[in-house]
Amino acid sequence: MKILIVFYSETGNTKLFAEEVKKAVEKKNIVCDMIQIETDVPARNYNPSNQVLNIKNMPDAEGYDYVILGGPVMAFRANYATMKCIKEINGIKGKKFIPFVTQHFPFPFMGGTNAISMMSKEAKKAGAEVLEGSIINIAWHDYKNDMKKKAEEISKSIL
Ligand SMILES: Cc1cc2nc3c(=O)[nH]c(=O)nc-3n(C[C@H](O)[C@H](O)[C@H](O)COP(=O)(O)O)c2cc1C
User: I need a labelling partner for 11 at 20 to 30 A (CA). Which of 20, 80, 98, 103 fits?
Assistant: First the structure.
């Protein structure tokens, strides 16, 4: 069993959650690699007609059983870097896919749910088997504790 965690992060929230997920997964003695997506320009909300963005280190999911992929919510949508990565990453066909997002606003309906739905649809289009996603809300939350709890939930969902 091998897990790949991929994330895009600008101010560190998503990175913190990705690191918690890695820790939780590794407690089960599962091999887990992690990669932070780097882009030539900062990602913004997904709107392919008005942004040109290149991923400098496109990950490869070949050889992994699960791909856990996330990024920040932007303008109530998934951001451009994570969407582009789901579209273009090699080897996610037939893989189990778990999306995750972090968002500032306190409720998932303020962008998180929509972002997870966009990411899930794109991953399904690419042939992945999509599992339940995870949303971290920062404002009004003990988000560091929520990250630990949700990372454990993700780890438990891995068979
Ligand atoms: C351009 C932009 C748009 C954003 N739009 C939203 C939004 O619609 N809803 C929300 O809850 N947070 C929004 N945020 C806040 C980020 O989603 C939040 O701070 C996230 O945790 C940042 O992740 P990072 O630290 O990994 O970059 C936005 C941030 C940026 C930069």
Answer: 98
